[in-house]
Specification:
It contains eleven helices and 20 strands. It is of the alpha/beta class and about 350 residues long. The longest helix has 14 residues.
Length: about 350
């Protein structure tokens, strides 16, 4: 089968590899149909690492994916060959203290698609996954939409963790795919006002289509001053989705006393800082968001029944053979790119 491998920094090649086989009665063999290019994939492509997770070349990446069942294990009763599925890329052990307490996203023995040393990435013609990681794709839902279940489920988990209430005033700093998914999820929760920032005007236009009340480009607008004028009492929740020190600082400044800061973006740096005095005096809560704990099924349902519309996020399409072009496009923020989808099976 054909597989996209990272073979060095900014090097991606399509190589041959043996087709996987079922090795467990609860596994499903999938033909990969669509794979979204995530910012974390691009981190591995451009830097070869995220924190302590270091790529050992050659390495497979990709985790935002949807496929079609080709074969199912002997103990799988909920799926059959030919059925389309969205994939939760996390494989949890189900037995550690974290899994038993309902925190499978922080499983101590977890394996995640495309993470170095954990599980092979989804940019391949075929992939095996546990049945527990597969979710049926309803009729009327496309495989492109199914690939966006994974990023939207992260936005949904962030919204739930923040306990966004109807009428809440929120901000999303960074309107890439994850920031836009957070925005969509907060809209479902009934957020009353949503302020969104980004350095790219094209993405701000997509944010408007996804429900933003106000958008601002920090290169053109003093975000803290602007929002301070509009909301002098501060905001209920701020979702930092850019992974930048500047946006972390902005978040602290625009939150109300008792407000919540959700760190969703992945910083490229190993350390970030906070001005402790406003953080302390206003008793701002800082919460880190780790993936999409128990939100995948709800994400499938919301996309399928059009409670949310993820279609505006997808701006570019490539074939598996064009994977390097897709990664370069996302890395360079070219051509108004928001979400790129690779069509593996054509």
């Amino acid at each position: 089968m054909k597989v996209a491998y990272l073979t060095g920094i900014r090097q991606l090649e399509i190589l041959d590899a043996p087709e996987p086989r079922l090795t467990h009665p609860r596994e499903v063999l999938l033909r990969m149909d669509t794979v979204g290019v995530c910012g974390s994939d691009v981190h591995y492509y451009t830097a070869g690492r995220i924190g302590t997770q270091v790529v050992q070349f050659p390495e497979r990446v990709g985790h935002e994916c949807a496929g079609t069942a080709v074969e199912v294990g002997s103990a799988v009763t909920e799926f059959e060959a030919g059925q389309r599925v969205a994939v939760d890329p996390l494989v949890a052990c189900g037995q550690c203290d974290q899994c038993r307490s309902g925190r499978r996203h922080t499983c101590r023995k977890q394996k995640f698609l495309g993470n170095p040393g954990e599980a092979p990435g989804a940019l391949a013609e075929f992939l095996t996954m546990p049945a527990e990681s597969c979710y049926p794709v309803p009729d009327g839902m496309t495989q492109v939409q199914a690939a966006l279940v994974e990023p939207f489920s992260i936005g949904l988990y962030a919204q739930r963790l923040a306990q966004v209430q109807p009428g809440a005033k929120i901000a999303v700093l960074g309107s890439g795919p994850i920031g836009l998914c957070v925005l969509l999820a907060c809209g479902v929760a009934g957020a009353g006002t949503a302020y969104v920032t980004d350095l790219l005007d094209e993405r701000l236009e997509v944010a408007r289509r996804c429900g933003a009340t106000w958008v601002g480009n920090p290169r053109k607008t003093d975000v803290v001053a602007a929002l301070g004028g509009i909301e002098p009492l501060g905001l209920d929740c701020v979702f930092e989705c850019a992974g930048e020190q500047q946006t972390l600082d902005q978040a602290v400044e625009i939150l109300k006393p008792g407000g919540r800061l959700l760190i969703v973006g992945i910083p490229e740096l190993d350390r970030v800082t906070f001005s402790i005095h406003p953080l302390r005096r206003r008793e701002i809560q800082v919460l880190n968001v780790r993936r999409q704990n128990h939100c995948t099924a709800a994400a499938v349902e919301m996309i399928a029944d059009r409670t949310v519309n993820v279609d505006p996020l997808v701006t570019h399409h490539f074939s598996l053979a064009q994977s390097k072009q897709a990664f370069d496009l996302v890395d360079g923020y070219h051509d108004g790119v928001v979400k790129t989808v690779i069509h593996v099976s054509g």
